[in-house]
Amino acid sequence: MEKSLQITIIVSIAIIIIAISALAITIPFKQTTEANYASPQKREFWLFNSEIPKFNEIKMGMSHDVFSMSTITVNKGDNVTIHFFNTELPGGDPHSFTIEGKTYDVNIVLNPGENKTVSFDATTAGVFPYECTFHQPTMQGQLIVLASGQP
Ligand SMILES: [Cu+2]
To answer: How far, in Å, is the centroid of ligand 1 from the Cα of 133?
Structure first.
């Protein structure tokens, strides 16, 4: 009888220690997550056409053109502004910034030396591929809209 009471007390103390440890581990992560997902915010990006140095287009059978950013990450609810620049010299290629699908209807086409700005609200969470319609398959990226932190 006395022994079983001892065991009960030891088990209870062990459970309390485990519970406190788990809480101590979880709390810092929770705070970090909440701080990072403060939203909505106005988020601004500068995007450029770029190229892979020493990339042999003939040998590889594809374009050397890429976007300066292959991912753009925002939170759901953010207002997103993207300034897109075509840094080609006169006589160079046009480039587009085109988000695939109908969720975000963005398609801007720039001649050499031009820049344009596009703004939209990130109303839908998910991963949305973007591309330059002139330079596939190399010139593409992903708009990532995170759902976390939304009420
Ligand atoms: Cu392009």
So the answer is: 7
Domain span at 13: 1-36
Report pLDDT for 27. Answer: 57
Distance 51 CA to ligand 1 centre (A): 10
The domain tally of the chain equals 2
Using DSSP, state whether 105 is helix, strand or coil: coil
For residue 140, how far is the Cα from the chain centroid? 13
C-alpha 126 to ligand 1 mean position (Å): 24
Do the domain assignments include residue 151? no
d(C-alpha 47, C-alpha 99), whole Å: 14
Under a CB-based contact definition with an 8 Å cutoff, are residues 42 and 35 in contact? no
pTM above 0.85, yes or no: no
% of the chain surpassing 70 pLDDT: 84
